[in-house]
Amino acid sequence: MKILSAEQSRAADLYTIDQEEITSLDLMERAAYALFCFLEEHFPEEQAYHIFCGMGNNGGDGLVLARLLYQSDYRVSLSIIKHKDEGSPDFEESLKALPADLKPQYLSEKEAEFELKQDAIIIDAILGNGLDRPLKGILARVVELLRNTSNFKIAIDIPTGLFADENSQNELSKVMACDLCLCIQSPKRSLLHAFTAPLVGRYVPIDIGLNQDFIGNLKSASYLLEKRDIAEIFRPRKKFSYKGTYGHLLILAGSENTMGAALICAEAAIRSGCGLATALVPASSFSAFNIRLPELMLYAQDTEIHKVKGNFSALIAGPGLSTAQSSAQYLKNLIQAAPGPMVLDADALNILAENPTWLRFLAAGTILCPHPGEMKRLLGLKKFEHNYLDLVLAFAQKYQLNILLKDAISVLVTKEGNFIYSDFGSPALAKAGSGDCLTGIIGSLLAQAYSPQAAVCLATYLHGTAAKLAAEAGAVESVLASDVNAHLAQAFASLV
Questions:
Q1: What's the pLDDT band for 112 if we cut at 50, 70, 90?
Q2: Which terminus of the chain, N or C, has less C-beta within 10 A?
Q3: Is 468 helix (H, G, I), strand (E, B) or coil?
Q4: Burial track 413-431 (b if 16+ CB lie within 10 A, e otherwise)
Protein backbone atom coordinates (compact mmCIF):
# COMPACT_ATOMS: atom_id res chain seq x y z
CA MET A 1 0.00 0.00 0.00
CA LYS A 2 1.41 3.36 -1.05
CA ILE A 3 1.76 5.94 1.74
CA LEU A 4 0.56 9.33 0.52
CA SER A 5 1.44 12.78 1.78
CA ALA A 6 -1.31 15.12 2.96
CA GLU A 7 -1.07 16.99 -0.34
CA GLN A 8 -1.31 13.76 -2.37
CA SER A 9 -4.33 12.63 -0.33
CA ARG A 10 -6.13 15.87 -1.13
CA ALA A 11 -5.20 15.50 -4.82
CA ALA A 12 -6.64 11.95 -4.85
CA ASP A 13 -9.88 13.29 -3.35
CA LEU A 14 -10.15 16.00 -6.00
CA TYR A 15 -9.32 13.65 -8.87
CA THR A 16 -11.94 11.13 -7.71
CA ILE A 17 -14.55 13.89 -7.43
CA ASP A 18 -13.72 15.11 -10.93
CA GLN A 19 -13.62 11.66 -12.59
CA GLU A 20 -16.80 10.38 -10.96
CA GLU A 21 -18.61 13.69 -11.45
CA ILE A 22 -19.65 13.82 -7.82
CA THR A 23 -19.45 16.63 -5.28
CA SER A 24 -17.05 16.86 -2.35
CA LEU A 25 -20.12 16.46 -0.13
CA ASP A 26 -20.91 13.17 -1.87
CA LEU A 27 -17.38 11.96 -1.08
CA MET A 28 -17.82 13.06 2.53
CA GLU A 29 -21.03 11.03 2.73
CA ARG A 30 -19.21 8.03 1.25
CA ALA A 31 -16.38 8.32 3.78
CA ALA A 32 -18.74 8.68 6.73
CA TYR A 33 -20.78 5.68 5.58
CA ALA A 34 -17.62 3.57 5.41
CA LEU A 35 -16.75 4.67 8.96
CA PHE A 36 -20.29 3.86 10.09
CA CYS A 37 -20.08 0.37 8.60
CA PHE A 38 -16.84 -0.30 10.48
CA LEU A 39 -18.37 0.79 13.80
CA GLU A 40 -21.52 -1.22 13.13
CA GLU A 41 -19.45 -4.35 12.44
CA HIS A 42 -17.00 -4.05 15.33
CA PHE A 43 -18.96 -2.53 18.21
CA PRO A 44 -22.22 -3.59 19.91
CA GLU A 45 -25.62 -2.07 19.09
CA GLU A 46 -25.94 -0.62 22.57
CA GLN A 47 -22.64 1.27 22.32
CA ALA A 48 -22.80 5.01 23.05
CA TYR A 49 -20.74 7.54 21.10
CA HIS A 50 -19.73 11.13 21.79
CA ILE A 51 -18.53 12.80 18.61
CA PHE A 52 -16.35 15.91 18.84
CA CYS A 53 -16.22 17.93 15.62
CA GLY A 54 -14.06 20.76 14.41
CA MET A 55 -15.37 23.06 11.69
CA GLY A 56 -13.44 21.76 8.70
CA ASN A 57 -14.06 18.71 6.53
CA ASN A 58 -12.87 16.31 9.24
CA GLY A 59 -15.60 17.80 11.39
CA GLY A 60 -17.99 17.36 8.48
CA ASP A 61 -17.15 13.65 8.40
CA GLY A 62 -18.02 13.57 12.09
CA LEU A 63 -21.36 15.30 11.53
CA VAL A 64 -22.40 12.83 8.82
CA LEU A 65 -21.28 9.92 11.00
CA ALA A 66 -23.31 11.33 13.91
CA ARG A 67 -26.39 11.50 11.68
CA LEU A 68 -25.95 7.93 10.43
CA LEU A 69 -25.45 6.55 13.93
CA TYR A 70 -28.42 8.50 15.29
CA GLN A 71 -30.70 7.34 12.48
CA SER A 72 -29.70 3.75 13.28
CA ASP A 73 -30.76 4.21 16.92
CA TYR A 74 -27.32 4.42 18.47
CA ARG A 75 -26.89 6.65 21.50
CA VAL A 76 -25.09 9.70 20.12
CA SER A 77 -23.90 12.93 21.72
CA LEU A 78 -22.43 15.67 19.56
CA SER A 79 -20.11 18.55 20.46
CA ILE A 80 -18.83 21.17 18.01
CA ILE A 81 -15.74 23.17 18.85
CA LYS A 82 -16.31 26.75 17.76
CA HIS A 83 -12.71 27.55 16.82
CA LYS A 84 -13.66 29.88 13.96
CA ASP A 85 -16.66 31.90 12.87
CA GLU A 86 -17.76 29.69 9.98
CA GLY A 87 -17.10 26.12 8.97
CA SER A 88 -16.08 24.75 5.58
CA PRO A 89 -18.91 24.64 3.00
CA ASP A 90 -19.33 20.86 3.38
CA PHE A 91 -19.31 21.16 7.16
CA GLU A 92 -22.10 23.75 7.02
CA GLU A 93 -24.16 21.59 4.66
CA SER A 94 -23.71 18.54 6.89
CA LEU A 95 -24.71 20.61 9.91
CA LYS A 96 -27.98 21.58 8.20
CA ALA A 97 -28.68 17.90 7.43
CA LEU A 98 -28.63 16.83 11.11
CA PRO A 99 -31.95 15.54 12.47
CA ALA A 100 -33.81 18.26 14.32
CA ASP A 101 -33.64 16.40 17.64
CA LEU A 102 -29.89 15.73 17.42
CA LYS A 103 -28.80 19.04 18.86
CA PRO A 104 -25.05 19.69 19.08
CA GLN A 105 -23.42 21.37 22.05
CA TYR A 106 -21.06 24.20 21.11
CA LEU A 107 -17.74 24.54 22.90
CA SER A 108 -15.95 27.88 22.84
CA GLU A 109 -13.29 29.88 24.62
CA LYS A 110 -16.00 31.10 27.00
CA GLU A 111 -17.61 27.71 27.58
CA ALA A 112 -15.56 24.55 27.09
CA GLU A 113 -17.20 22.26 29.64
CA PHE A 114 -19.01 19.17 28.42
CA GLU A 115 -20.68 16.15 29.95
CA LEU A 116 -19.17 12.82 28.93
CA LYS A 117 -20.81 9.50 29.71
CA GLN A 118 -18.44 6.95 31.17
CA ASP A 119 -19.37 4.24 28.66
CA ALA A 120 -19.26 6.48 25.57
CA ILE A 121 -16.60 6.05 22.91
CA ILE A 122 -15.06 9.39 21.98
CA ILE A 123 -14.93 10.01 18.23
CA ASP A 124 -12.26 12.55 17.36
CA ALA A 125 -13.42 14.42 14.25
CA ILE A 126 -11.86 17.71 15.27
CA LEU A 127 -9.00 18.29 12.81
CA GLY A 128 -7.74 16.26 9.87
CA ASN A 129 -4.50 15.84 7.96
CA GLY A 130 -4.12 19.46 6.87
CA LEU A 131 -2.82 20.69 10.23
CA ASP A 132 0.66 22.25 10.14
CA ARG A 133 0.98 24.07 13.47
CA PRO A 134 0.64 23.00 17.13
CA LEU A 135 -2.77 23.24 18.76
CA LYS A 136 -3.65 26.35 20.71
CA GLY A 137 -6.64 28.08 22.22
CA ILE A 138 -9.96 26.27 22.53
CA LEU A 139 -8.72 23.35 20.40
CA ALA A 140 -5.79 22.67 22.72
CA ARG A 141 -8.03 23.07 25.75
CA VAL A 142 -10.67 20.58 24.60
CA VAL A 143 -8.06 18.06 23.47
CA GLU A 144 -6.36 18.29 26.87
CA LEU A 145 -9.67 17.59 28.61
CA LEU A 146 -10.32 14.60 26.35
CA ARG A 147 -6.80 13.25 26.77
CA ASN A 148 -7.36 13.07 30.50
CA THR A 149 -10.46 10.87 30.23
CA SER A 150 -10.37 7.08 30.42
CA ASN A 151 -12.90 6.66 27.58
CA PHE A 152 -11.93 4.62 24.52
CA LYS A 153 -10.97 7.06 21.75
CA ILE A 154 -11.29 6.68 17.98
CA ALA A 155 -9.75 9.21 15.61
CA ILE A 156 -11.09 9.82 12.12
CA ASP A 157 -8.20 9.77 9.63
CA ILE A 158 -5.58 11.13 12.06
CA PRO A 159 -5.56 12.11 15.75
CA THR A 160 -6.20 15.81 16.23
CA GLY A 161 -2.98 17.74 16.68
CA LEU A 162 -0.79 15.30 14.74
CA PHE A 163 0.75 16.48 11.47
CA ALA A 164 0.33 13.99 8.64
CA ASP A 165 3.86 14.04 7.26
CA GLU A 166 6.51 15.41 9.61
CA ASN A 167 6.27 16.41 13.27
CA SER A 168 9.68 17.81 14.23
CA GLN A 169 8.11 21.24 14.83
CA ASN A 170 5.04 19.90 16.59
CA GLU A 171 4.23 19.80 20.30
CA LEU A 172 3.33 16.14 20.70
CA SER A 173 2.15 16.60 24.28
CA LYS A 174 -0.85 18.46 22.81
CA VAL A 175 -1.90 15.69 20.42
CA MET A 176 -5.12 13.75 21.04
CA ALA A 177 -3.72 10.30 21.78
CA CYS A 178 -6.23 7.68 20.65
CA ASP A 179 -6.79 3.94 20.94
CA LEU A 180 -7.85 3.41 17.33
CA CYS A 181 -7.42 5.47 14.20
CA LEU A 182 -9.72 4.88 11.25
CA CYS A 183 -7.50 6.33 8.54
CA ILE A 184 -9.12 7.28 5.28
CA GLN A 185 -7.85 5.13 2.36
CA SER A 186 -4.29 4.67 3.70
CA PRO A 187 -2.34 5.54 6.85
CA LYS A 188 -0.43 8.79 6.93
CA ARG A 189 3.33 8.70 7.49
CA SER A 190 3.06 9.92 11.09
CA LEU A 191 0.93 6.90 12.01
CA LEU A 192 4.00 4.74 11.31
CA HIS A 193 6.87 6.91 12.60
CA ALA A 194 8.44 5.65 15.82
CA PHE A 195 8.10 9.04 17.58
CA THR A 196 4.40 9.48 16.78
CA ALA A 197 2.94 5.98 16.24
CA PRO A 198 2.47 5.44 20.01
CA LEU A 199 -0.06 8.30 19.97
CA VAL A 200 -2.16 6.44 17.43
CA GLY A 201 -2.73 3.09 19.10
CA ARG A 202 -4.02 0.77 16.40
CA TYR A 203 -4.89 2.01 12.91
CA VAL A 204 -7.26 0.54 10.32
CA PRO A 205 -7.34 1.83 6.72
CA ILE A 206 -10.89 2.58 5.57
CA ASP A 207 -11.32 2.28 1.80
CA ILE A 208 -13.57 5.02 0.43
CA GLY A 209 -13.04 4.19 -3.24
CA LEU A 210 -10.53 6.86 -4.28
CA ASN A 211 -9.33 6.45 -7.85
CA GLN A 212 -6.68 3.71 -7.80
CA ASP A 213 -5.23 4.57 -11.20
CA PHE A 214 -4.48 8.08 -9.98
CA ILE A 215 -2.97 6.81 -6.73
CA GLY A 216 -0.90 4.27 -8.67
CA ASN A 217 0.68 7.08 -10.71
CA LEU A 218 1.58 9.20 -7.68
CA LYS A 219 5.23 9.13 -6.69
CA SER A 220 5.96 7.93 -3.18
CA ALA A 221 9.02 6.41 -1.54
CA SER A 222 6.99 4.98 1.35
CA TYR A 223 4.91 1.79 1.38
CA LEU A 224 3.05 -0.29 3.94
CA LEU A 225 3.16 -4.05 3.49
CA GLU A 226 -0.14 -5.90 3.38
CA LYS A 227 -0.75 -9.63 3.47
CA ARG A 228 -1.66 -9.61 -0.22
CA ASP A 229 1.86 -8.28 -0.95
CA ILE A 230 3.34 -11.17 1.01
CA ALA A 231 1.21 -13.71 -0.84
CA GLU A 232 2.62 -12.38 -4.13
CA ILE A 233 6.21 -12.72 -2.84
CA PHE A 234 5.88 -16.25 -1.46
CA ARG A 235 6.96 -19.09 -3.76
CA PRO A 236 5.45 -22.48 -2.84
CA ARG A 237 7.78 -25.45 -3.30
CA LYS A 238 7.68 -27.45 -6.49
CA LYS A 239 7.16 -31.20 -6.41
CA PHE A 240 10.24 -31.93 -8.51
CA SER A 241 12.93 -30.37 -6.33
CA TYR A 242 15.57 -31.48 -3.86
CA LYS A 243 17.65 -29.98 -1.04
CA GLY A 244 20.05 -28.32 -3.47
CA THR A 245 17.13 -26.43 -5.01
CA TYR A 246 16.67 -24.43 -1.82
CA GLY A 247 20.18 -23.26 -1.15
CA HIS A 248 22.97 -23.73 1.37
CA LEU A 249 23.15 -21.21 4.22
CA LEU A 250 26.32 -20.45 6.18
CA ILE A 251 25.81 -19.12 9.73
CA LEU A 252 28.52 -17.42 11.82
CA ALA A 253 27.05 -17.14 15.31
CA GLY A 254 27.49 -17.86 18.97
CA SER A 255 30.23 -17.60 21.59
CA GLU A 256 30.91 -19.44 24.82
CA ASN A 257 28.28 -17.51 26.81
CA THR A 258 25.69 -16.84 24.10
CA MET A 259 25.09 -20.10 22.28
CA GLY A 260 21.32 -19.73 22.69
CA ALA A 261 21.28 -16.94 20.09
CA ALA A 262 23.05 -19.19 17.59
CA LEU A 263 20.67 -22.08 18.26
CA ILE A 264 17.57 -19.92 17.87
CA CYS A 265 18.90 -18.37 14.66
CA ALA A 266 19.90 -21.71 13.14
CA GLU A 267 16.60 -23.39 14.00
CA ALA A 268 14.63 -20.48 12.49
CA ALA A 269 16.71 -20.80 9.32
CA ILE A 270 16.14 -24.53 8.96
CA ARG A 271 12.42 -24.20 9.68
CA SER A 272 12.17 -21.47 7.03
CA GLY A 273 13.07 -23.72 4.15
CA CYS A 274 16.75 -23.57 3.21
CA GLY A 275 17.88 -26.93 1.86
CA LEU A 276 21.13 -27.07 3.81
CA ALA A 277 22.68 -25.09 6.65
CA THR A 278 26.19 -25.03 8.06
CA ALA A 279 27.07 -23.20 11.27
CA LEU A 280 30.41 -21.78 12.34
CA VAL A 281 30.18 -22.02 16.14
CA PRO A 282 32.53 -22.69 19.08
CA ALA A 283 33.66 -26.33 19.09
CA SER A 284 32.49 -26.67 22.70
CA SER A 285 28.88 -26.30 21.51
CA PHE A 286 28.89 -29.17 19.04
CA SER A 287 27.16 -31.60 21.40
CA ALA A 288 24.36 -29.14 22.10
CA PHE A 289 23.83 -28.52 18.40
CA ASN A 290 23.91 -32.21 17.52
CA ILE A 291 21.25 -32.90 20.15
CA ARG A 292 19.01 -29.89 19.39
CA LEU A 293 19.52 -29.57 15.63
CA PRO A 294 20.91 -32.75 14.10
CA GLU A 295 20.00 -31.39 10.64
CA LEU A 296 22.73 -28.75 10.95
CA MET A 297 26.34 -29.19 9.73
CA LEU A 298 29.06 -27.74 11.95
CA TYR A 299 32.50 -26.20 11.75
CA ALA A 300 34.52 -24.71 14.61
CA GLN A 301 34.89 -20.94 14.47
CA ASP A 302 38.66 -21.19 14.24
CA THR A 303 38.44 -23.11 10.96
CA GLU A 304 40.18 -21.24 8.15
CA ILE A 305 37.60 -19.84 5.73
CA HIS A 306 38.94 -21.71 2.71
CA LYS A 307 38.56 -25.01 4.58
CA VAL A 308 34.83 -24.53 5.17
CA LYS A 309 33.32 -26.76 2.50
CA GLY A 310 30.08 -25.96 0.74
CA ASN A 311 28.60 -24.14 -2.22
CA PHE A 312 27.04 -21.45 -0.04
CA SER A 313 24.22 -19.34 -1.41
CA ALA A 314 23.86 -16.92 1.56
CA LEU A 315 25.50 -15.92 4.81
CA ILE A 316 24.23 -14.95 8.26
CA ALA A 317 26.63 -13.36 10.75
CA GLY A 318 26.21 -11.90 14.21
CA PRO A 319 23.75 -13.57 16.61
CA GLY A 320 25.57 -14.17 19.90
CA LEU A 321 28.95 -13.79 18.17
CA SER A 322 30.61 -11.44 20.73
CA THR A 323 32.83 -8.51 19.79
CA ALA A 324 36.10 -10.18 20.78
CA GLN A 325 39.06 -9.46 18.51
CA SER A 326 39.09 -13.02 17.21
CA SER A 327 35.40 -12.80 16.28
CA ALA A 328 35.92 -9.45 14.59
CA GLN A 329 38.83 -10.72 12.51
CA TYR A 330 36.91 -13.85 11.49
CA LEU A 331 33.93 -11.73 10.46
CA LYS A 332 36.19 -9.50 8.38
CA ASN A 333 37.68 -12.50 6.60
CA LEU A 334 34.24 -13.98 5.98
CA ILE A 335 32.62 -10.88 4.51
CA GLN A 336 35.67 -10.29 2.31
CA ALA A 337 35.29 -13.85 0.99
CA ALA A 338 31.66 -12.97 0.16
CA PRO A 339 30.12 -16.47 -0.14
CA GLY A 340 26.76 -15.03 -1.22
CA PRO A 341 24.12 -12.48 -0.16
CA MET A 342 24.54 -11.54 3.48
CA VAL A 343 22.40 -10.60 6.46
CA LEU A 344 24.25 -9.10 9.42
CA ASP A 345 22.79 -8.64 12.88
CA ALA A 346 23.64 -8.19 16.55
CA ASP A 347 27.38 -8.41 17.27
CA ALA A 348 28.26 -8.26 13.58
CA LEU A 349 26.72 -4.77 13.62
CA ASN A 350 28.53 -3.84 16.81
CA ILE A 351 31.82 -4.96 15.24
CA LEU A 352 31.08 -2.82 12.15
CA ALA A 353 30.28 0.16 14.40
CA GLU A 354 33.75 -0.22 15.94
CA ASN A 355 35.37 -0.70 12.51
CA PRO A 356 33.39 1.56 10.14
CA THR A 357 35.92 1.27 7.30
CA TRP A 358 34.86 -2.37 6.95
CA LEU A 359 31.47 -1.22 5.67
CA ARG A 360 33.20 -0.77 2.31
CA PHE A 361 33.79 -4.53 2.17
CA LEU A 362 30.06 -5.31 2.15
CA ALA A 363 28.54 -6.35 -1.15
CA ALA A 364 25.82 -4.10 -2.54
CA GLY A 365 22.44 -5.21 -1.27
CA THR A 366 23.73 -6.65 2.01
CA ILE A 367 21.02 -6.63 4.69
CA LEU A 368 21.64 -5.11 8.11
CA CYS A 369 19.07 -5.83 10.84
CA PRO A 370 19.68 -3.33 13.66
CA HIS A 371 17.38 -2.44 16.51
CA PRO A 372 17.42 1.31 17.29
CA GLY A 373 20.35 1.03 19.70
CA GLU A 374 22.51 -0.79 17.15
CA MET A 375 21.55 1.70 14.44
CA LYS A 376 22.56 4.61 16.65
CA ARG A 377 25.96 3.01 17.16
CA LEU A 378 26.40 2.55 13.41
CA LEU A 379 25.50 6.19 12.86
CA GLY A 380 27.62 7.41 15.76
CA LEU A 381 24.61 8.98 17.51
CA LYS A 382 23.66 9.10 21.17
CA LYS A 383 19.96 9.49 20.40
CA PHE A 384 17.55 9.67 17.50
CA GLU A 385 15.84 12.90 16.49
CA HIS A 386 12.72 13.17 14.35
CA ASN A 387 14.82 12.97 11.18
CA TYR A 388 16.40 9.63 12.09
CA LEU A 389 14.98 7.88 9.01
CA ASP A 390 16.65 10.42 6.75
CA LEU A 391 19.99 9.56 8.40
CA VAL A 392 19.35 5.84 7.99
CA LEU A 393 18.50 6.42 4.32
CA ALA A 394 21.70 8.40 3.74
CA PHE A 395 23.71 5.59 5.39
CA ALA A 396 21.96 2.91 3.31
CA GLN A 397 22.60 4.76 0.06
CA LYS A 398 26.21 5.64 0.93
CA TYR A 399 27.10 1.97 1.41
CA GLN A 400 24.41 0.50 -0.91
CA LEU A 401 22.82 -1.49 1.91
CA ASN A 402 19.30 -2.61 2.80
CA ILE A 403 18.61 -1.76 6.43
CA LEU A 404 15.76 -3.35 8.37
CA LEU A 405 15.28 -1.10 11.38
CA LYS A 406 13.47 -3.33 13.87
CA ASP A 407 10.78 -1.79 16.07
CA ALA A 408 7.11 -2.21 16.95
CA ILE A 409 6.55 -1.08 13.37
CA SER A 410 9.68 -2.09 11.48
CA VAL A 411 10.88 -0.28 8.38
CA LEU A 412 13.09 -1.55 5.57
CA VAL A 413 15.20 1.30 4.19
CA THR A 414 16.37 0.14 0.79
CA LYS A 415 19.49 1.09 -1.11
CA GLU A 416 17.18 2.44 -3.84
CA GLY A 417 15.74 4.97 -1.39
CA ASN A 418 12.41 3.43 -0.39
CA PHE A 419 10.83 2.99 3.03
CA ILE A 420 8.84 -0.23 3.35
CA TYR A 421 6.91 -0.44 6.63
CA SER A 422 6.03 -3.78 8.19
CA ASP A 423 3.40 -3.84 10.91
CA PHE A 424 3.00 -7.60 11.36
CA GLY A 425 4.67 -7.62 14.78
CA SER A 426 3.37 -8.45 18.23
CA PRO A 427 4.27 -7.54 21.84
CA ALA A 428 5.10 -11.25 22.13
CA LEU A 429 8.32 -10.42 20.27
CA ALA A 430 9.54 -8.13 23.05
CA LYS A 431 11.72 -10.95 24.32
CA ALA A 432 15.38 -11.98 24.05
CA GLY A 433 16.09 -14.08 20.98
CA SER A 434 13.34 -12.64 18.78
CA GLY A 435 15.83 -10.78 16.60
CA ASP A 436 17.97 -13.91 16.23
CA CYS A 437 14.90 -15.76 14.99
CA LEU A 438 14.11 -13.05 12.43
CA THR A 439 17.68 -13.03 11.15
CA GLY A 440 17.54 -16.80 10.68
CA ILE A 441 14.38 -16.51 8.60
CA ILE A 442 15.82 -13.74 6.41
CA GLY A 443 19.05 -15.67 5.82
CA SER A 444 17.15 -18.83 4.93
CA LEU A 445 15.05 -16.96 2.37
CA LEU A 446 18.17 -15.36 0.90
CA ALA A 447 19.66 -18.85 0.50
CA GLN A 448 16.52 -19.83 -1.42
CA ALA A 449 17.25 -17.05 -3.93
CA TYR A 450 14.65 -14.56 -2.74
CA SER A 451 15.85 -11.02 -3.44
CA PRO A 452 17.02 -9.09 -0.36
CA GLN A 453 13.88 -6.94 -0.35
CA ALA A 454 11.55 -9.91 -0.83
CA ALA A 455 13.38 -11.91 1.85
CA VAL A 456 12.98 -9.16 4.42
CA CYS A 457 9.32 -8.52 3.61
CA LEU A 458 8.37 -12.20 3.72
CA ALA A 459 10.44 -12.78 6.87
CA THR A 460 8.81 -9.96 8.84
CA TYR A 461 5.40 -11.42 8.01
CA LEU A 462 6.36 -14.97 8.98
CA HIS A 463 8.09 -13.79 12.17
CA GLY A 464 5.18 -11.65 13.36
CA THR A 465 2.53 -14.16 12.37
CA ALA A 466 4.33 -17.00 14.15
CA ALA A 467 4.55 -14.85 17.29
CA LYS A 468 0.82 -14.11 17.20
CA LEU A 469 0.03 -17.78 16.71
CA ALA A 470 2.27 -18.68 19.65
CA ALA A 471 0.53 -16.08 21.82
CA GLU A 472 -2.89 -17.52 20.99
CA ALA A 473 -1.89 -20.65 22.91
CA GLY A 474 -1.44 -18.66 26.11
CA ALA A 475 -0.36 -15.06 26.60
CA VAL A 476 2.02 -12.65 24.89
CA GLU A 477 4.09 -12.45 28.07
CA SER A 478 4.88 -16.17 27.96
CA VAL A 479 6.02 -16.50 24.35
CA LEU A 480 9.69 -17.45 23.89
CA ALA A 481 11.73 -17.12 20.73
CA SER A 482 11.71 -20.93 20.62
CA ASP A 483 7.91 -20.80 20.55
CA VAL A 484 8.06 -18.46 17.56
CA ASN A 485 10.26 -20.98 15.76
CA ALA A 486 7.82 -23.76 16.62
CA HIS A 487 4.96 -21.84 14.97
CA LEU A 488 6.73 -21.00 11.72
CA ALA A 489 5.04 -23.94 10.01
CA GLN A 490 1.62 -22.43 10.72
CA ALA A 491 2.82 -19.03 9.54
CA PHE A 492 3.88 -20.56 6.20
CA ALA A 493 0.57 -22.42 6.02
CA SER A 494 -1.32 -19.10 6.27
CA LEU A 495 0.08 -18.21 2.84
CA VAL A 496 -0.99 -21.34 1.02
A1: confident
A2: C
A3: helix
A4: bbbeebbbbbbbbbebbeb
